[in-house]
Design brief:
With 87 residues, this protein is α+β, with helices and mostly antiparallel strands. It has two helices and three strands. It has a three-stranded antiparallel beta sheet, covered by helices on one side. A hairpin with a 6-residue loop joins strand 1 and strand 2. The radius of gyration is 13 Å and the shape is globular. The termini are far apart. The model has no long low-confidence stretch (mean pLDDT 78).
């Protein structure tokens, strides 16, 4: 299991959680965890994002400070894929 070198915490990955990790914006499978700041300081932002929303997540998190990106992995445990509905 991979640990974050700065925080010493276990990284958020599909294999670590045992559940699929979804994008915070569209509920597709997440490909990255975008973070800025440090937990417990009051200045921390984190969001899981798919490839489509990764740039927006970086912009949102960068308001706190420099962002860091942790890939969540390409092999996600599959419960079900939520279909995207467009109108």
């Amino acid at each position: 299991m991979r640990r974050d070198p700065l925080l010493g915490l276990q990284a958020l990955t599909a294999m670590a959680t045992g559940w699929p990790t979804y994008c915070a914006r569209c509920r597709r499978w997440a490909t990255a965890l975008i973070e800025a700041g440090y937990p417990g300081t009051g200045h921390y932002r984190a969001e899981t994002a798919c490839a489509r929303h990764e740039a927006a997540a970086h912009r949102w998190a960068s308001r706190i400070g420099p962002t860091r990106c942790t890939p969540t992995g390409t092999t996600q445990p599959v419960l079900f894929e939520i279909p995207e509905v467009t109108r």
